[in-house]
Amino acid sequence: MVVGAGAAAAAAMACGPSFQAVYEGDVRFEHCYALDQGPASPDAKKECWRGWLHDYTYGQSRDRVEYAGLRFSELSLDPTLPSEDREVRHARVMPMAVPTSAFAPPPSTVDRVTAETPSPATTAPAPPRTVGATRAPGEDCAETCSGYWKTCRSGCKGAACDNCDKAYKLCGQGCFKK
Question: I want to staple 167 with a disulfide (CB 3.0 to 4.6 A). Which of 32, 88, 107, 138 is the partner?
Fold first, then answer.
């Protein structure tokens, strides 16, 4: 009985992926990921992901296989279709407060207006500060959004430029939310 259990355990271990196969898949995935982040041509990136999907998925996690499939399909799309530039993707990230403690509650994402809070129309505007080189609230963020928009618009044609405008509006809204 003990001999049978030992033989079954050895057979089960022999059926999984080898450490070498997993290692080679990891190394090749990281190579394609690094290629994706660099200035390589879309065809080279596409070919790298295709090769990884064809030869290195054995023993890899499902999220890596799904990511590689997604990247391959994105790179396989017709280049004349509207697509998002890498800069536009970053422009959609909304600025939020960063947690300072694991024990602190998360920051509020809803603007709450109470009855005691006077409306902006009834309050006098705050006097401008006289500190040298001050910037308006959200000005840095708005300039970043503007830079992304200019980069996006310089490389688009026709209806694809509408995506640049949408991303700019989303980015700008995030700059002025509290």
Answer: 88
